[in-house]
Amino acid sequence: MWYKHFVTSNDFYLTIRKKAKGKQPRLIMVKDVTPPVTGKSFVLEAPVVILIGPTAVGKTDLALSLAEQFDGEIVGADSMQIYRYMDIGTAKPTSEEQARVAHHLIDIVDPDEDYQAARYGADALQACREITARGRMPLVVGGTGLYIRALELGVFDIEPVPETIRCRIRERLARQGRALLFEELRRIDPESAARLHPNDTQRLLRALEVFEATGVPWSAHLAAHQRTPQLKRVLKIGLNCGRDEVYARINRRCRQMLDLGLVDEVRKLLAMGYAGSLKSMQAIGYRHVLNYLAGEWSLAQTVELLARDTRRYAKRQYTWFTRDAAINWRHPGQGSEIATLIQDFLAGRPAGKENINR
After folding, report:
1. Fewer CB within 10 Å: C terminus or N terminus of the chain?
2. Where are the alpha helices (DSSP H) in the chain?
3. Is the pLDDT of residue 103 over 50?
4. Which residues, other chains included, contact 196 with Cβ-Cβ below 8 Å and sequence gap of 6+?
């Protein structure tokens, strides 16, 4: 059985199903999907499937299988896989895997480029629209919760913060330390400080940059932003295999990354001129290898701390996703059941906790 999905020139969405060899294809759904204007964006009415879960849970293998089964293309939702030259430490799909199924939003910016969730939301929405226009199913795959939310609802964005402000705050971070800057955030934007973890350097810097650039707390900007759903029909599938199993997967992956050449990958990035202080280079895996190369940790310590911090990250990912009651949770080994959910969803039949935004 296969499905084909088309958006016609006059903005009608069609789903055609063929049950078996020799049988005639049958039209099973027709919908008007003329995009209504909502600010800078529009609502995509064609169905979108989102596959999410913590790192190392098994999203890549299942996504490839599902994309092949349902004539889909994969839209990445990983805040590290967007970077070029960073392959091993991000567990990026291999060139062979990307040759099997078309992938989008992977290898799209250099490690020193700024890429915010708001830009991702717009890029991912456009990718989904183009995939649908080709008669294929968008399959969004990743573990960055903020990216998924940006695609679904859009994200507050302001004019780019001047580079002089960004550099000044980063210099203060290096000189004064994260704790002092976090105390400053408590004074100028207590709501954001309450929401952020004290070790979340990226968002700490963002909150301080926004305040210095606009004179208005980040939390006030967020409160003023009216979010409008960007996807009409969404099926969200979350993968979870239990703490012990996912932790074992993480431990194996971390060892494999070192075996595959993560240290050499970091050396190459440094040789290309990408500073260790960059946001991309301070991500899990890369900052650990930087400490190893600086002589601060042994290789054994690097592997141990990399695995520990990745496990903690997976726990934070799972905590984020469990707040979304619309996710259909399944074990990664339940491929057949997940395929049935998608099949029912595409056919317009009730399919688990399907989101329909009216």
Report:
1. C
2. 59-69, 95-100, 117-133, 145-153, 163-176, 178-188, 190-195, 201-214, 218-224, 243-260, 262-271, 286-293, 299-322, 335-346
3. yes
4. 182, 185, 203, 204, 207
How far is the CA of 297 from the CAs of 115, 169, 300, 307, in angstroms? 30, 28, 8, 14
pLDDT above 50 (res 122): yes
Burial of residue 326, with CB atoms counted within 10 A of its CB: 0-12 exposed, 13-18 middle, 19 or more buried? middle
Using the predicted structure, report yes or no on whether residue 31 has a pLDDT greater than 60: no
Spans of all domains in the chain = 2-155+227-243+318-356, 163-224
Q: What is the dihedral of CA 330, 336, 341, 343, to 10 degrees?
A: 160
273: left (phi over 0), alpha (psi -120 to 50) or beta: left
CB 280 within 8 A of CB 86: yes
Share of the chain above pLDDT 70, in %: 84
* Measured distance CA(243)–CA(315) in Å, rounded: 9
Can you give the pLDDT at residue 47? 96
Specify the amino acid at residue 307: A
User: What is 163-224's CATH number, 1.10.20.140, 2.160.10.10, 3.40.640.10, 2.40.100.10?
Assistant: 1.10.20.140
Cα–Cα distance list, 289 to 41, 78, 301 (Å): 40, 20, 10
For the four alpha carbons of 145, 322, 220 and 283, in that order, the dihedral sign comes to negative
CA atoms within 13 A on the CB side of 69: 16
Pair 100, 64: CB distance under 8 Å? yes
Q: Which CATH class is domain 2-155+227-243+318-356?
A: alpha beta
Structure tokens at 82: 């967007």
Alpha carbon 348 to chain centroid, angstroms? 26
- Hey, which of 39-43, 156-160, 227-231 has the most confident mean pLDDT? 227-231
- Each residue's pLDDT tens digit, 218-267: 888 777 666 678 999 999 999 999 899 999 999 999 999 999 999 999 99
| pLDDT tier, 352 (very low <50, low <70, confident <90, very high otherwise) | confident
CA dist 254 and 260 (Å) reads: 10
